[in-house]
Structure formats: structure tokens, C-alpha cells
Prior knowledge:
Elements: H1 16-20, H2 22-38, E1 48-52, H3 61-74, E2 79-83, E3 94-95, H4 103-106, H5 108-113, E4 118-121, H6 125-134, E5 139-143, E6 155-161, H7 181-187, E7 190-194, H8 197-206, E8 215-222, E9 233-238, H9 243-252, E10 256-262, H10 271-283, E11 287-291, H11 292-295, E12 306-309, E13 311-315, H12 319-327
Parallel strand pairs: 1-5, 1-6, 2-4, 2-5, 6-7, 7-8, 9-10, 9-11, 11-12
Antiparallel strand pairs: 3-4, 8-13
Amino acid sequence: MQEPLFWMNSPNRPGVFARLLTPLAVVAGRLTKRRLAQGPWHRIGVPVICVGNINIGGTGKTPTVIALAMRLKDMGYSPHVVSRGYGGSLEGPVRVRERTHKAAQVGDEPLLISAFCETWVSKDRHAGALEAQKAGADVILLDDGFQNPTLAKDLSIVVVDAVSGFGNGMVFPAGGLRETPKDGLARADIVLVIGHPKARNQFVALWPDVGMLPVVHAELKPLDTGMEWKGHKFLAFAGIGRPEKFFATLRGLGADLIQTEALSDHQPLTRRLLNRMEADAFFNGAQMVTTEKDATRVPEDFKLKVLTLPVRLQLEDWAPIDDALAGVGLIPKSA
């Protein structure tokens, strides 16, 4: 069998175990494709913009949703975010209240996003979008849901972490994808690649099909909070898609990381875990620090013990996204 282009000279070439699981991966990919083809693809009366991914796990969707929400607000719109609320206990549709809800109820990502934009949690995305529309939304931002067929999308943005890319290019369980890149990219309107310039360029070169779509380059940049990171000791913990991104950002600011804790995505921050990390930090003369998303899961009585490093998505050029927004009728409103 001739190997695909992305396997040539690639460290992500599937190993023996992945190849053995290929038949299961093929079946999973076909089932996803069939489910998406069947719909029902409900339409509502306002534009729906999906920020999703092909990968399983985090790629940078949350900062992308926040950046897009702020962009739409600047254009004069009232965007509402609809999210499944991964890890939350509420079925919805529920309007997320930043000061009332807990991450265990609505999920850490919706709770974070709610600080910037009206946000709804709903296992049924169509029902959530309808409630958002009734509440005054004139555009819906779908947080994830790229593989969900219940709600028709007017614009789909696929977010990719430049370093992780599409991994070995195979669907779970042989790889880390929800569907094949070919199938996913066929439904996408824009690919947003997040990472350092070198990694972004390498990813695009490795996956020629990506270049058939408008590609937007972006990077996560830390906000200047006045905190002096250089020369100080920190114990950093993160439960995001790729925790090493957070650790690298801290080191780039000059922080001395005496210990790092790479947690699983959305991992509960139990009292036992927090107390153990607090003790480790104390005995090493270090300060605990985490991400904005993880901070939403820190208990209220523990928050003062943990610093937060906020980051924001910076796009090299908004033009491709602005053009796509205009294509679905979203243009800056006159003052």
C-alpha cells in the first residue's frame, strides 16, 4: 500500500498498533460520515457559525470563540455562544451565569466564555440555539459541534493546533481524530491554525488539502497583567488539550517552573490534588499558577492561592474571516 504524503518523513507515521486498529477506525469514520449525511440539519432564523475541530481534544477552540465573539460585538452584533458543556451536569438549555454557576454544572469552557459573551449550555444544540435566539441573539456561535448534525451551520471554522496537527491522520481508535481530514475539510469553510510561525508553516506544508481552503494563522499571546514572572519560582498545572503549551508560555515569560502538572483535559481539581500541589509549592518556595480555563474549576476558597495567566488569540489577518462573515450577511453595522 502506498503511504499518504503526510506520512513521508513524518514522526507521526502510524505504528504497528495503530495499523492493527485501522479496520475499526475505518468503520468509525464511515459511521460519522453517514450520521452527518442523514441530518436532520435544522435551520433557525439567524446565522450559525461553528468553531470546531477534526481532532479529539483541545486545539484552541475556546480562545477562538472568545476572539470571534468580541469581533462580532465590535461589528455591532449580539452573538450568543451555544456549547454542549462538556463535564457539566446540566442538560440545558441553560443560560450560563458566570457568578452563579460552577464548572461542575455547566463545564469549564462555557463558564470561561460567559465572562465575554452570552453563553448557553445545551446537550441539544438546536434547542439551545432556539433559546438563544429568543433571548436576543442575532448570531449563534457554536462552540464545537462540527460533527453534530442537529443544527445547520452557515460557516464552519476548523481549529488546528499546529504542533499536534492531525497526528497520524487516522480516526479513533487508530488515531486521535473524530473523522478523516478529507471528510472534515470537505465541510469546512476556513482552517485556523494556532501556533508559532514555523510550526504553522510545517503543518500546512504537510497537509496539502488544508491549502485548498482559506487558512488563517494565529498565535496565543499572554496578556500583560503587570505580574513579574522572570526570576520567580512557580508550580504550574494545566488540564487543557496540550498542557505543554501553557508551560512553554510561562517559560517564555521567564518563569522558573520548579514543577509542572500535566492534567487531563477537564480533569476535576479535587481537594486532595490541590492540597498535594499546594504542599509541593510551599516546600519549594513556589507560587501555584494555572490557565484561565482551569481556574474556573478551582474551588472558591482556594482561588486566592492560585495565580492565573490569561492568554488571547491574535490573528495575523482577519480578512479571510471577515470575508466569510460578509458572505453569510454579517457586515459591520452602521453607528
